[in-house]
Amino acid sequence: MNLTSPRVIKDIQQKFGFTFKKGLGQNFLTSQDILDDIVDALGDESAVLEIGPGFGTLTAALAERMDKVVSIEIDERLLDVLDYTLEEFNNIKIINGDALKLDLHALIREEFGDRKISVAANLPYYITTPVITTLLENKLPLNSIVVMVQKEVAERLTALPGSKDYGAITVMCRYFSEPSIVTKVPSSLFLPPPKVDSAVLKLRLRETPAVDVRDEKMFFRVVKAAFSQRRKTLLNCMCANFPFTKDDMASILSKNGIEPSRRGETLSLEEFALIADSMNKMKDFAKEQSPPV
């Protein structure tokens, strides 16, 4: 069964009386070349967790090259469809659930044991950021994440400091992974075609974060604050989000060789780490100087 054929997709729709739900972002890929690019990007991986199999187009391509594929599908209507389209495979397990609500640590441990795996997905645009954030922040045992996302999102996640696309989500991705764009995908290669083009994004997970920080929560608080008001200077953004005086904050920045007049989008991960660590040190010093209660 050629699941990338628009005719086959429409025949399956008719057979099961299936209608696309716009709210679930259901756009099915019709290009075998792009499927090959996604599977190739996973390298020599033998086990994969898929999010959002749809009609099973990517699922089948993965199952042809992997030992085991576990797919999470939120739409109950697709379970019978997937039984039909994937009936020739015995190395696929479909789980009906919401990837954002499932205990992914427990699921991976139950299905794959102690080994590291990868994640593959053709993500609905509306859950792209939440899913990627969940996969990274939960520190799952992953080698890589290969996902289809909106082209603009892929450009944002791979942006470099100083570019207009560089933001807090970029910093988070670079902190936990090495992001790259595998290939760009025009909207014409989907059924129904979305209004925007897409891209295949690969996040290769790092063994350790890109920078060493004393307090990871503080690091991400600093990053979030720096991008809270993009038109304002770094000094003003920091003072608006932390209980430091302007003089103290300016001192922290200057001691780390960072001009207070700069903006968040110009900072490297190393500079964010320096600010976060210095703020922690100042907090610790203030506590030591406080009189006992």
Structure commentary:
- The structure is a single chain.
- With 293 residues, this protein is α/β, with parallel strands linked by helices.
- 41% of the residues lie in helices and 18% in strands.
- The protein is built from twelve helices and nine strands.
- It has helices at residues 6-16, 32-41, 57-63, 78-85, 104-112, 128-137, 151-157, 168-176, 216-226, 234-241, 246-255, 269-289, and strands at residues 28-29, 47-51, 68-73, 92-96, 117-122, 142-150, 177-185, 190-191, 198-205.
- The strands form two sheets. Strands 4-3-2-5-6-9-7 form a seven-stranded mixed beta sheet, sandwiched between helices.
- Helix 3 (57-63) links the parallel strand 2 and strand 3.
- Helix 9 packs across helix 12 (269-289).
- The longest helix has 21 residues, at 269-289.
- The radius of gyration is 22 Å and the shape is elongated.
- The chain starts with 5 loop residues before the first helix and ends with a helix.
